[in-house]
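sorry for the late reply, my laptop died twice this morning and i had to redo everyting from scratch. anyway the thing you sent over, i finally got around to it. pasting the sequence first so we're on the same page, its 355 residues, then the predicted structure underneath. double check i copied it right bc i was rushing
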Amino acid sequence: MDLSARLGLDIPLFQAPMAGVATPALAACVSNAGGLGALGLGASDAAAARAMITELRARTARPFGVNLFTHASPQADPVREAAWINALAPLFARFGAAPPAQLHSPYRSLADDPEMVAMLLAEKPAVISFHFGLPPAEVLAALRTTGALLMASATSLAEARAIAAAGLDAVIAQGIEAGGHRGIFEPAGADDALGTFALTRLLVREGALPVVAAGGIMDGAGIAAALALGAEAAQLGTAFIACPESAADAAYRAALAGPGAQHTRLTAAISGRPARALGNRFTALAEELGTLAIPAYPIAYHAGKALNAAAKAAGEDGYGAQWAGQGAPLARPLPTAELVALLRAELAAAQAGPR
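ok and here's the structure:
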């Protein structure tokens, strides 16, 4: 399958969905410029997701994608959660706030959200992708009826084989360099931490599905390298955070342009699942907490979001979930349309080779 031909793309560029950062305006600009724009719906309910899709469709007539979280239903552990709250309590006190009395999951997995499934069946986006695993077989069967191209993230060959066995159309090879949450199916399991290019090559050689390379790719030369390894497209996320159309706040943008961009860290302390973020006070806190058991994903996120809100109210911006990949220092604060045009020019130059 030629993914670009099927989707009518002018450049083999997928914008990473980035829940909370990717906006309809950003996704529309990418699609209108010839790539595939995308929305991350995993942190939204069905009504909010539908509203974003409606806005996106008002901005573009071209294909776009949506992404859903498919994590296992979180199991509450009151003892672990109480210990986590107690560990964070001194920080809340420093900012003149109290921690949550109890922690709750701030959003649902697609596997537990029939309203979201119904919304997808009605809206029929061109691409539907999954993160943290696969939805139940009956949900996949229903979503196939929309005609959407179905994809899922894999961090290993075994996960990619499971995606192929489930009958999906393409696989996203998410390398350890990628910003945001690792798509690993079982977060408590072993993670071989494969880099983007090694993983891409493994999945291309496997040959079961078309591969979209993701992680650390920031410019046209990176896209060209992914294509040279056999990927059909490259997925870029961190490259778009600095665009004015993203929802990143001023503190996030400043951090991306600062020294923390050179020191991204994988941590599970913010949300309960390993995710790569800019080095900030929260990633440093994760190291201080050491071996303290973290509540399940996304229950831990309740505490992380509350701490960030308390800190920001006191004028401290260092506790945000400032997700970014290892290529963060290469970010360019350009309007999205200009960035996509530049990526196209860089890709063409890289493929033409030295003159």
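The mean pLDDT is 96.
thats about all i looked at so far, will dig more tmrw
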